Amino acid sequence: MKKVLAILLAILMIATLAACGNGGGGGSDDKGFVGIAMPTQSSPRWVNDGANLVAQLEELGYRTILQYGEDVVADQIAQIEDMIVQGVDFLVIASIDGSALGGVLAQAAEADITVIAYDRLIMDTADISFYTTFDNFAVGVMQANSLLLGLGINDGATGPFNIELFGGSPDDNNAFFFYDGAMSVLEPLIEDGTLVVQSGQVGMQQVGTLGWAAETAQSRMEDLLNAFYADQRLDAVLSPYDGISLGILSALRGAGYGSEQDWPVVSGQDATRAGVQSIIDGEQFATVFKDTRDLAAATVRIIEAITNGTEPPINNTTDYNNNVFYVPSYLLDIVHVDATNWEVELIDTGYWTLDDFNLS
After folding, report:
1. How far is CA 63 from CA 48, 294, 342, in A?
2. Where are the alpha helices (DSSP H) in 167-291?
3. pLDDT tens digits for range 104-149
C-alpha cells in the first residue's frame, strides 16, 4: 500500500508540474515548446510580462514553461539549462545579467534552439537570434523631456535649476540606452548652466543603481541631500524607473519635500501601480508607459513566423550591437504619462483599472 501511495503521489506531482506555468509546462505541444526566463517576481512588471507571454502563447497552442531567477544569475542559468534539457524549441529570456549567459546559450545553439532576448539585450554572444524591446534611447529622451516640462523650461523658464541624475543597473544594457537618451537632452542644458548638478556626479559609473533597487536609490539620495542641499533646493531628479523614483521620493519626503516645500520634478518608467499612484498623489511627476502586452505580442509574432516558416517581423537591424553583431530587433513605441493623461493611457486601454488606485 505504501508503494502504491508513493507512485500515486509521484504521478500527482508530475501532473501538477505539467499544469503549472512557473516551473512546469502548460498548454499544448502541438505547435512547439517555449521556455520563458524572467529576472524576478519582486517587480510587478516582470510578473505581468511572464503572464502575458504564457497566455498569448498557450492560446495559439504552444506549450510553455515559465521560470523566475529572482535576480540570482546562477539560478537563471540553471533554469535555462533545465529548459534546454526539457527540449524547448524556443527560449525567451529577460536576462538578469546580459553578459553572463554565453555558456548556456552555446548549449542552446547546439540544440538548435531559437533564442529571443526579451527587453534586455543579451551581450557578448552570437547565440541569440532576435531582440524584442521598446525604443530604449527614446525612453531616456522622454524622461528628460518630462523634467523640462515639469520645470517649465519648455515654456521659457531659464533657471538655473538644480538637478541630480540617477541611472539604472549597470549590469542591464538598457540602463545605458536610457541614460544616454536622457543626457542627449540634458547635457546641453547642463553645459549652458540652465541645469546644475550640484554633486557633480554624472556618468553611469557614478549614478548607476545596482539591481534597480529602491533602497539603494533612497540611500544615495539621502547622501546627496545631506551633502549638497542643506541650504538650497533640489528642483529635479532624473530617475530611470518608477521603483527607483519611489526610493528617491522617500528620501525627499524625509528632507521635508512635499510638506515644507514643493516636490522636485521626478521622472520614471514602467507605469507601475505604485508609480502611477504617486503621480495621482502629486509626488512623482511622470512615467514612461511601455505596454508589455504589446511586447509579448511582438515576441509571439516572431515565434509564430519561425514556426510557420515565414519572415519574422523586424524593424531595426542597426542600433543594438551586443559586442558580437547587430541583433535583429523589433522596437515598440512608448507613451509619456503624467497627471493629465494617466486615465486615458492606462485605464481606458485596460492596462490598469480605477479600482487599482486610491483616488480619495
Report:
1. 18, 20, 36
2. 173-191, 204-207, 214-228, 242-254, 273-280
3. 999 999 999 999 999 999 999 999 999 999 999 999 999 999 999 9
